[in-house]
Amino acid sequence: MYKIAVLGDKDSIYGFAALGLDICPVSLSDDTSEAVKKLRELAEGNYAVIYIIESLAEKIKNEINRYRSTKLPAIIPIPGASGNTGLGMRMVKKSVEQAVGSDILFRD
After folding, report:
1. Residues 50-88, buried b or exposed e (16+ Cβ, 10 A)?
2. pLDDT tens-place values along the chain, 108 residues long
3. Which CATH architecture best describes the domain 3-100?
4. Helix/strand/coil for 14
5. Quick one: CA torsion of 47, 91, 24, 31, rounded to 10 degrees?
6. Taking the model in full, what pTM does it have?
């Protein structure tokens, strides 16, 4: 059975444990090696969905892009305790444009 994980700073993710999701706290420092290592461990594990705090996702976007063409896991950016950066919406827009061939959501 597939699982769901949340990756980010502890202040942003501890609430998800109450929902039964696996939480993986990491530091939001400039050294992203810990976050990349945790993401790779989760991706190689039995996780179908990995939620990642947007501020962390911005820092490791190259690593996240490696998984965009794979079936699993789905890596989904979510706002953290520090607020919304807009990354999640930009990724949704990009995915829709790839699937449909044009911007049908925002039409800027």
Report:
1. bbbbbbbbebbeebbeebeeeeebebbbbbbeeeebebb
2. 899 999 999 999 999 999 999 999 998 888 899 999 999 999 998 999 999 999 999 999 999 989 988 889 999 999 988 778 878 777 777 777 777 777 776 665
3. 3-Layer(aba) Sandwich (3.40)
4. helix
5. 130
6. 0.84
**Residue 26, SS3?**
coil
pLDDT of residue 31: 85
What is the residue type of 85? T
Q: What does the domain layout of the chain look like in residue ranges?
A: 3-100
Q: Rounded to whole angstroms, how far apart are CA atoms 66 and 22?
A: 22
C-alpha 88/C-alpha 91 separation (Å) is: 5
CB 77 within 8 A of CB 56: no
